[in-house]
């Protein structure tokens, strides 16, 4: 089966598509500062993370999945506009047209998946299933536990850091929260066991009092967060 476009056009399409996906999935610091991220572009729908942490990330995870799954389709739309050959046709005849239809099918399947998670007031969302496992009988329904987490995140005294894998960790008085593109890991500190996986020294020099330069004794530590009771999946921070 023929490709449908010239090899040079296909190579340019691959490079441009990879760049677009990289920019959207892993935005640079400059893009984040400029506000070109999914969470900032759709802030009007997501709301404020600080005041409704759980609800915010329920929306954000679904939105991120939907946008990322739509990237192949958007790339083929761009290809349709750039090349003289048709990319979207009623009946595909070449490899590019088949790939374009697969991108439509993938986007549609992802939209159905996100709709299932969104319907019935988030009850089918995988984050809600994890919250139910963490919920103590005295805490009541998962929404009451979500309210507790929201209150914890609103407190001024919390620790927040960006990990080397572009995820984010928030530590409150009672919770360890790891935020990734498609998920949020919840761990009660009282039920958590921290295991050092790796410790790497920071090779940087700092000025000393006598004017000499000394090496910093700080370390980067990778931790594995495990549940003592088995209520949540192990994750790394």
UniProtKB/TrEMBL annotation:
Task: Name the chain's protein.
Answer: Uncharacterized protein
Where is the protein found, in the record's own terms? Answer: Membrane
* Entry keywords, A to Z: Membrane, Transmembrane, Transmembrane helix
Q: Where is the signal peptide?
A: none
Its placement in the membrane is given as: Multi-pass membrane protein
Q: Listed GO molecular functions?
A: ubiquitin protein ligase activity
From the record, give the transmembrane residue ranges: 6-26, 61-79, 99-120
Entry's Gene Ontology BP terms: protein ubiquitination
Could you tell me which Pfam families the record lists for this protein?
Tmpp129 (PF10272)
What GO terms fall under cellular component here?
Answer: endoplasmic reticulum; membrane
Q: Which family does it belong to?
A: Belongs to the TMEM129 family.
